[in-house]
Specification:
Blueprint lengths: L6 H40 L5 E9 L8 E12 L2 E12 L4 E8 L5 H7 L3 H44 L9
Antiparallel strand pairs: 1-2, 2-3, 3-4
């Protein structure tokens, strides 16, 4: 017959182990957070103002079985709660209903398991920021002359109003 287990001793041992594991986990997690905060700080200083997302993992149901659901976990650089930063999100939806649920966090506020999976995608995120930055620069260049034309036309149209405010007779200005 097996010896009876002293539950009190087992639980006391577990408590001690949990305390040690918790301290180690929090310490290493804090170090990870500091590294990501450093990257985040540098990116904010660049003032990119562009949002990009990289899929960490995802999947979808089987449409043949009538399951049109999908999900993904993503790492991105986005404006969240009025501040730009490295973020993580979980997206879930139904293709047939065009509804989507998104839960988003700043990197260090996300669940640990998601943060751990996201680390492998940091380099991809930086690459995508560069690509999107270049593409956005080109789009702005293409539209710049249009904006300058509108600004010049508006400025010309507003000239009589400015003259009137300054009490400059129209015939004196050439």
């Amino acid at each position: 017959m097996p010896e009876p287990v002293n539950i009190s001793e087992v639980v006391t041992s577990f408590y001690s182990d949990l305390k040690t594991v918790s301290a180690e986990l929090n310490s290493v997690s804090d170090e990870l957070g500091k590294s990501v905060n450093g990257i985040d700080s540098i990116l904010r200083n660049f003032n990119l103002g562009i949002e990009v997302w990289v899929k960490i993992r995802g999947g979808s149901g089987d449409p043949e079985q009538g399951d049109f659901s999908y999900w993904s976990e993503d790492i991105g650089y986005a404006k969240y709660r009025s501040r730009w930063g490295i973020c993580l999100r979980e997206v879930r939806g139904e293709q047939s209903s065009d509804t989507e649920e998104v839960e988003q966090w700043y990197f260090n506020d996300a669940p640990r398991a998601l943060r751990l999976r996201a680390i492998d995608c940091l380099v991809q995120l930086l690459q995508k920021l560069i690509e999107e930055g270049r593409a956005t620069t080109e789009k702005i260049r293409e539209k710049l002359s249009d904006a300058e034309t509108v600004a010049a036309a508006l400025s010309k149209a507003a000239l009589p109003i400015r003259r009137a405010r300054l009490n400059i007779p129209t015939e004196e200005v050439k």
